[in-house]
Amino acid sequence: MNAKELTKLGLTDAEARIYHTILKLNVCTVKDIAKECGFHRTNIYDVIEQLKEKGLVTFVKEGKVMKYQPADPHNFYELLKEKEDFLDSIFPELEKLHKQKTSPVVVEVYKGEEGMKSAYRDIVREKSKVYGFGIRGQLRGYLPMFAEQWLRDMKKHKIPLCGIYTQRKDPPPYITEIRYVSKELGSPACTLIYADKININIWEPSMVAIIIKSKLVADMYKKHFDLLWKIAKK
């Protein structure tokens, strides 16, 4: 485990690096931490206070020297539970504000691995039949562990998925229907149509997912899918 991974638990970069250092040293002074990670002492004191407030660091005073040590890692569960409870309390208001959008076309852009995962989770939330083209197994290639979970969720919620692949290469077991087209008819991006949304995935040179919410645009993309489906081979 490295310090960067701890940021996925909600720590800032500085909190993650200093907490990781304290974990490695077990019992240490601010001087020890500064020597190990290169932070200025003043900044270390500020970050340690933040970690103490989160219940992740404890301290003992030996004479005039303050020494710090990591608290029980189980406290991370409590920290995340508090955030989850807070989100539950404000979510109805967030959802209400989100639904107040008046634009007939809503475009959302998601970047990076976590952004791509969020875009795919939206498909599961909608629980509507999915039509996809330009599929080459990108999700399983770039995010294999997440892909397995996503396909399990699709199966669990019985969400039909019709996919047009550009190559015959080990399609996942859970796809309702699969057809194939030549690479010339393929697309550099994977496009998924569901409900009144279009999810366009760009995988290289960096991961970007674009979700367009518009019944008119979704219907146009569905017509394009239908044309490809007619000429695609089983």
Give a summary of the structure in a few sentences.
With 234 residues, the protein is of the alpha+beta class.
What does this protein structure show overall?
With 234 residues, this protein is α+β, with helices and mostly antiparallel strands. It folds into two domains: 3-75, Orthogonal Bundle (Arc Repressor Mutant, subunit A), CATH 1.10.10.10; 106-231, Endonuclease, Chain A. Helices cover 48% and strands 21% of the residues. It contains nine helices and nine strands. The strands form two sheets. Strands 3-9-8-7-4-5-6 form a seven-stranded mixed beta sheet, with helices on both faces. Strands 1-2 form a two-stranded antiparallel sheet. Helix 2 crosses helix 3, helix 2 (13-25) packs across helix 4 (41-53) and helix 6 (112-126) packs parallel to helix 8 (144-156).
List the keywords:
single chain; 234 residues; alpha+beta; Arc Repressor Mutant, subunit A; Endonuclease, Chain A; 2 domains; seven-stranded mixed β-sheet; 48% helix
Helix-strand layout with pairing:
Layout: H1 3-6, H2 13-25, H3 30-37, H4 41-53, E1 57-62, E2 65-70, H5 75-98, E3 106-111, H6 112-126, E4 130-135, H7 138-142, H8 144-156, E5 161-165, E6 177-180, E7 190-194, E8 197-202, E9 208-213, H9 215-231
Parallel strand pairs: 4-5, 5-6
Antiparallel strand pairs: 1-2, 3-9, 4-7, 7-8, 8-9
Helix pairs in contact: 2-3, 2-4, 6-8
Quantity of strands, as a count: 9
Q: List the helices and strands in order.
A: HHHHEEHEHEHHEEEEEH
Helix content: 40-55%
Overall 3D form? elongated
Query: How large is the radius of gyration?
Result: 24 Å
Summed up, the domain count is: 2
Rounded average pLDDT:
88
Structural class based on helices, strands and sheet pairing: alpha+beta
CATH superfamily of the largest domain: Endonuclease Chain A
Low-pLDDT runs of 5+ residues are none
What is the beta-strand fraction? Answer: 15-25%
> What is CATH's topology name of the largest domain?
Endonuclease, Chain A
Distance between the termini: 45 Å
